Amino acid sequence: MKKTKGLFGRTLVGGLLVCSLFMGSNALAVDPCSQTAQLSGGTTINNQNKTGNTSTGYQYEIWRDGNGGSLTLYPKDACFRAEWNNAGDFLGRVGKTFNKPAWNNIGGDLVANYAYKKSGNDGGTYSYIGIYGWMDNPQIEYYIVDDWLHDRGNPGGSYMGSHKGTITVDGDQYEVWSGTRTGASKWGNSTFTQIFSIRKTRRQCGTISISEHFRQWQKLGLNLGQLMEAQILAESGGGQGYVDFSYATVEIVPEGSTGGNTGGNTGGNTGGNTGGNTGGNTGGNTGGNTGGSAAVVTDPCSKTTSYSGGTRVTGNGIQDIGNGYNYEIWRDGNSGSMTYFGGDADCAFKADWNNSGDFLARVGYYDGAATKKYTDLGEITAAYNYKKSGNGGGSYSYIGIYGWTKSPLIEYYIVDDSFTPNGGGMYYNAQTIGTYQVDGVTYTLKKGTRVNAPSIEGNTTFTQVFAQRSSYQTCGTINVTEHFKNWERLGIQMGGIYDCKILCEVGGGQGSIEYTYATMSWDGQTGAAGGPAEPTEPQEPYKGAIAIPGTVEAENYDKGGNGFGYKDSDNKNEGGEYREDGVDVVKANGGYAVGYTTSSEWLTYTVNVEKAGKYDVEAFASNGNTDIEIDLFIDDNKVGSVSGAGSEDWDTYVKLTGSVTLPAGEHILKVAFASDYNNLDYIKFYEEGTAPEEEEPSTPTTPSEPSASANGSFFSEDGAYFGPDCGTGAEANYKGSYYTGVYPTPFQTYLGKTDAEVQAKLDQLWNHYFEGGENSKVYYDRGNGEAYIYDTGNSDVRSEGMSYGMMICVQTNHREEFGKLWNFAKKYMWHNPNSGGDGYFTWKVKTDGSFNGDNGCAPDGEMYFMMSLLFAANRWDDAGYMKDAQDILKACWKGNGQSLFNEQYKVVTFQPSQGNNSFSDPSYDLPAFVDLFSRWSTTNNSTWKQAAQATRDHLYKSSNPKSGLFSDYNNFDGTPKYVDFNKNSHKYMYDAMRCAMNFGMDHYMFGADAERQEEMARRIIDFFEKDGYQHARFEWDGSNPAENYTLGETGANAVACLALVENSNYQEIVKKNFKKAWDASLMTGQYRYYDGLVHYLSMLHLCGSFKIWKPQPNIEKKTVEGVGEVTYLGETYTESTTITAFEDCQLYNVTIEVTSSTGVADAENVEGVTIAPNPANDYFVVTTGEEVASVEILNIAGQVVSVTEGETLINISLPAGTYIVKIATEEGNTYVKRLCVK
Description:
Layout lengths: L14 H6 L22 E4 L3 E4 L5 E6 L3 E6 L6 E6 L4 E8 L11 E12 L6 E10 L3 E8 L14 E8 L2 E14 L2 E12 L5 E5 H10 L6 E2 L1 E8 L3 E14 L9 H8 L1 H21 L18 E3 L3 E6 L2 E7 L3 E6 L8 E6 L4 E8 L14 E10 L6 E10 L3 E8 L13 E8 L2 E13 L6 E10 L5 E5 H10 L6 E11 L3 E13 L2 E2 L19 E3 L1 E4 L12 E2 L17 E4 L2 E4 L7 E8 L3 E10 L5 E7 L2 E8 L9 E9 L2 E9 L5 E9 L20 E2 L27 H4 L5 H4 L5 H16 L8 E3 L5 E5 L4 E3 H13 L3 H14 L15 E2 L13 H18 L2 H13 L35 H10 L4 H18 L35 H12 L4 H18 L3 E3 L8 E3 L2 H10 L10 H13 L8 H15 L12 E9 L2 E3 L2 E3 L3 E7 L2 E10 L5 E2 L7 E3 L6 E5 L4 E7 L5 E6 ...
Parallel strand pairs: 9-12, 25-28, 33-38, 52-56, 57-64
Antiparallel strand pairs: 1-4, 2-3, 3-6, 4-5, 5-16, 6-15, 7-13, 7-16, 8-9, 8-14, 8-15, 10-11, 11-12, 17-20, 18-19, 19-22, 20-21, 21-31, 22-30, 23-29, 23-31, 24-25, 24-30, 26-27, 27-28, 31-32, 34-44, 35-38, 36-37, 38-43, 39-42, 39-44, 40-41, 40-43, 45-55, 46-47, 47-48, 48-49, 50-51, 53-54, ...
């Protein structure tokens, strides 16, 4: 749908001129489908947004959100050609405008005729070809859609509002949708109604009886207004393509010459002979009667079949169950339970109670924040059918609709039935304030006040409202919105809707209720029960377009629902995992797979192919019954298949291979199952010839921490050092990478990835975000020695992104790109203290470096700038970078109220100026960085050391004790901070997700706060496990989930899992998170910048590629010798070599000298050479026929522990164990014996 659009400056046709548009009854005599000749000439409007008049008496508009797009106005009627290329939302339209006559008072019937050719796609977004226009009083945007630019199925779903019915116009059925939208309109930004008629059978030529659609909409209960325009439309949300109209007219013809079912079609094609008779009579009768009654409606009273299975709950609680619904159960006393079914059962549930005191069970709408009023939710409706037995305890009971509003606080009931209709406690002394009619029956409205009573806000005073049906029923419908409207008419002011649910509540007794049908709908949600398969959302990528080359995880199929994002033979997730729709997702290989497939089913994925060419394909699948065969399609054109023998069972996955040729750009990949009973884990695409050899996944292990390593493992290829350091005091017990020089590599230890695969993943990330196309990259080289990281969501440059980009460059050894980024930041963003600046950075500038509204800083940028400059200075031995880093570090503690860190609490501030230094943003807490600042800064070292501890403390306090979540902004005691300029500052939002990466990084780098950081990891990972990794935004306590789990969270939470690798209870969960991070699709499109870079940084941590680049160490030399083999610091060497080792807080270049047996007599085989006693205790004697020169004793590590010269009586004081004795004689021979010490 359109996001922003200029809709002003239109030329309106006066009311009198409308009559001049009237055409005779022969106007429909031309068959549009015969008008196929290609047109030429005319005027072309390129790359601009514009409205105006055509040379043929029509009005036009071209609009584009993004890049290229053009509109060619042919010199014939309303004919035009619309062409787009990655234009974002693009539309071209030509038609008529009106001066707001009533829609049914324009002097006849409005009709459009058209024929066109099309090519291209909508980029996986949305597209409409048909009629478009606006009405006023009320404000309405309307579409009549005859065709579209994709093969994902007919448009439709909750993003269009709610389904209003099916009408028949022009010989085919149209599905009608309507909802409320707030955004750009003819009146600027306003709230308006949208109406869509979507043709079931798409076509590229024909007649659209626009006025007949208006009449049918009115019969469906839609309130229409004054006509402003009706134009032939081509609209696309993205992609590349064109629509070329060879015939197009918009005309007013006599009323009755077009009609509903037959009239429009017959009248349009047959013309004068039957147009008047058939068009008038059949059109009027069939169009009016049949067309009006064609809405698809489920009779709830016909739904009597019980549901089976379900989830039974007995404890008090509230929880989402999918499809937008939420359940709650509450009982005061003894036994009581409810079973909800979810899925295509919508709100259906059953409940039973036995002397439970107050007991309620309910399912429906829930928004704990009460952010919307009922007028924001469109038409709220409910339908139900149930069976009941028993009683409600005699006092009170309610069956119907129940909920709360906030501001004001109101508890409300719509009572359609009761176990105790005359109970003494039914209405708590509420008084009757009026009556009204809804759904064809009278309701009595009662209002009362409860004082110090339980509520959603604790014990307090609130209003109660009861609407009592005059005649009770056990099946039917409830138009909740109409109730609310009547309540407001009677003086009840409704607040934000906290919940609105189908309810059974009793005050006691014993009984049960079973709903055989229960559904609710509102704008943004439509239940599945009883209706035809409809998309519940627009088809779009589940987690962003999937990059190829790359991995397509089976479970991450596109959104859109059955028949759109996927095709499944039923609407139940048989595996019950991961997603809440009809695809059967099962657990597999530490992650998920799609299972229970049949040969008629398929899945779609929006993919972004980096470049056209041949690709090798590897699919990992199982089938315990038969051979596996899977077909692959691009934009519904078959491009290849993968097949092979089945596996022993469904838990054993085998690799299938194939090859395909793919076009570049964004496309829809369809994966179609050509055999039954397959499980599909994932499909990998490699550029031809680049697929690595597969290795068996290894068993997850915790990386060892040796004190010595093979040559170069503490240094990069170009000699930069990242090895161990010596800890003193408490640090001596820390196990972080700073002290050991060993970095975790969970993709290898948990997922079995090879070095080559890890490097390929790192290359893919770099190529995507730094060297990719316009839809993927964020790094832009200005060609003058400067470059910037582009915030694609805000169209500017930010200190956060620039410093992230520099960190990525130094960690991946891209020195040139690092320098260009720093040149830009230093020139346009840094307030250089050497030039009188405060040492901080402007947090946002335009892409040319110019002022962008605010010169203040955002300290996450400062933190990453300082750290990346220090790393760059050490890695590349660059004194300039070191000086710049030290200048910023010094500026952080000015002592004048402008310090980056709060001087009292030693915690980073939200901003050091503008009155924002009294609170913090916990995602700026980077304890590993602050620890390194305390070691490497040339100023304020003791203050930095205090700040390191304070930062760890603040990060821990910021973690909610139950949910483990963090708030975006908070106080220095860790509690959320509310600010006027950000209404979500107290919530877990976009900033806060980085906290998990921050403490996970500190855990593996230092381990100085390991216990508390493991606790934080348990909290937050447990929380997201319960959430199913479905949501991204929450209150600090984890309530009110919203938005989909993001790529950035996928990476950050995986880094947090590094604090759990030694916890045996979390191994599968840890592996799952690592796999999510590895398999995640790289982001494309407008919002790739932030989540993409957070994920990129996370991947560096998880690949073992985020190193602590240190100053060059002092290295001493050492030699260790042995015969046959040498064991040194736990490693055994059989050949001479040179290694780098860290021993006793000193780094050594160690020469390992292994002497072969050549020239050395084996003492065991030389007569007369002995050592005795053996085993020995405190001495032994060497006996040999030669003069002894020296006797050396070596331990098993190859270290010399004793040397005696010229003696044969060797006194020893050694720990028990096995030793090597080397006996050298004056004759030059060496004999070796093994000695056992008791």
